Amino acid sequence: MVRMSVLGEREQTAGASRASLEQLARQWEGLAPQAILVEAVRAFGQQLVLATALGPESIVLVDMLVRIWPQPQAFFLDTGLHFPETLALKDRLLERYPQLQLQVVKPLLSVEEQQVRYGERLFEHRPDQCCAMRKVEPLNRVLAPYKAWITGMRREQSPSRAEAGVVQWDSSRGMVKFNPLAFWSHKQVWSYIAEHDLPYNPLHDQGYPSIGCSPACCTAPVAVGADPRSGRWQGKSKTECGLHL
């Protein structure tokens, strides 16, 4: 049983929260993701939200959540630069799960306004700045009212995610972060999708294992067997957009 003193008290010091959650993460290691989600919903209720970029992991989490939470809360960061296939998947997801309370969050500046202020193709010349404006700021804004969030992060995805716990303290935002699929493999994710006949982005069948914004400098197809995130920001040292750092 999860105690609210471990998960639900935002007034704890960051150090105490981190230590408590690390211990809890060890206890929960190997639990079914559904069990972790049940505890998350039980502890936080309406103060909990799922982040979805409409990748296969978050599609799995949506399907799991609707089975235990009558009207699960989620958000999608619409950068204004998504592939048409990604936006079409959003509509398909809402058709399948009308109970999903999906908030679409946009940057403060449109793509056109950003171009006027910062120049064209900022995503190519200064990708960190572009991600900060189109992803990180909207994320921080949408998370502000909540005390906990759920992500589809998996350790297998990249070295920067290799230490992700199934639950952890998000020190940059002062809240709890759940990663129920942290220990799942790529095969487990896609087996769940096949078993439950879930919708997914057709670009995954065209060599795009990780899908972000549509410019080629942000998302490109990769060879079979290559690092799944090697198609992101190719030719740059950048490996993350900043949402999980």
From TrEMBL:
Which Gene Ontology terms of cellular component type are present?
A: cytoplasm
Compartmental location: Cytoplasm
Query: Which BP terms in the Gene Ontology apply to this protein?
Result: hydrogen sulfide biosynthetic process; sulfate assimilation, phosphoadenylyl sulfate reduction by phosphoadenylyl-sulfate reductase (thioredoxin)
Primary localization: cytoplasm
Catalytic activity, reaction form: [thioredoxin]-disulfide + sulfite + adenosine 3',5'-bisphosphate + 2 H(+) = [thioredoxin]-dithiol + 3'-phosphoadenylyl sulfate
Instruction: Name its pathway.
Output: Sulfur metabolism; hydrogen sulfide biosynthesis; sulfite from sulfate: step 3/3
Annotated TM spans: none
SUPFAM superfamilies attached to this UniProt entry: Adenine nucleotide alpha hydrolases-like
Keywords, alphabetical: Cytoplasm, Oxidoreductase
EC number, as in UniProt: 1.8.4.8
Give the annotated active site: 241
Family, as annotated: Belongs to the PAPS reductase family. CysH subfamily.
Record's protein name = Phosphoadenosine 5'-phosphosulfate reductase
Organism name: Gloeobacter kilaueensis (strain ATCC BAA-2537 / CCAP 1431/1 / ULC 316 / JS1)
